[in-house]
Amino acid sequence: MKYLSLALLFATLTASGAERIQLWGKCFQGMSPTEVLETYPEAVEYKDKYTFPDYKGSRCLIIIKNKLLPIDMFSRYNVRFYFNDDGLQKVSLNSLSGNTRQKEELIRLLSEKYGKPAYEEEIADLIRKEWEKNGTDVRFEYSNRNGDNPEIGIYYYAGRTKDFLENEL
Questions:
Q1: pLDDT tens for residues 36-76?
Q2: Cα-flanking dihedrals φ and ψ of residue 54, to 5°?
Q3: For a Cys staple, 28 with which of 20, 36, 109, 153, CB 3.0–4.6 Å?
Q4: Domain residues for 111?
Q5: Is 13 among the domain residues?
Q6: For residues 78 and 96, is the Cβ–Cβ distance under 8 A?
Q7: Predicted TM-score of the model (pTM)
């Protein structure tokens, strides 16, 4: 009986571990703020108390400022981690140096990694593309509303594209 209990416990732990959806880098849906801070020592608590609820009621609690990322010509990003009562729900990468060349390179790289977008929208100065792979949803946004300083963001979620396509379209 003891061995059966241990086998059931191991199977449960293995199954729950398999359900963890990777968001960005070494981050998985459901991680605690402490786990993210341990995973990324350069991360700090986000001090802005006026953040509004985001995806699934999550709020930005942790940020890595001015992070150099090798994803597109080693550009710098602010990386934000959003949590709710169930843990990490979203990771956003916001470029500090958005430009047209970077936009094109990021779309190419994301398409190579995730395939054809599940959703695409281009309206005036806004481009939005969304991919889904292995439970990870990735949204790319490019906005050049003011014409001087384009904004580029990459957002990682678990389950968002399916919800978006079913409920928001």
A1: 999 999 999 998 766 667 778 888 999 999 988 877 667 88
A2: -120, -145
A3: 20
A4: 20-167
A5: no
A6: yes
A7: 0.80
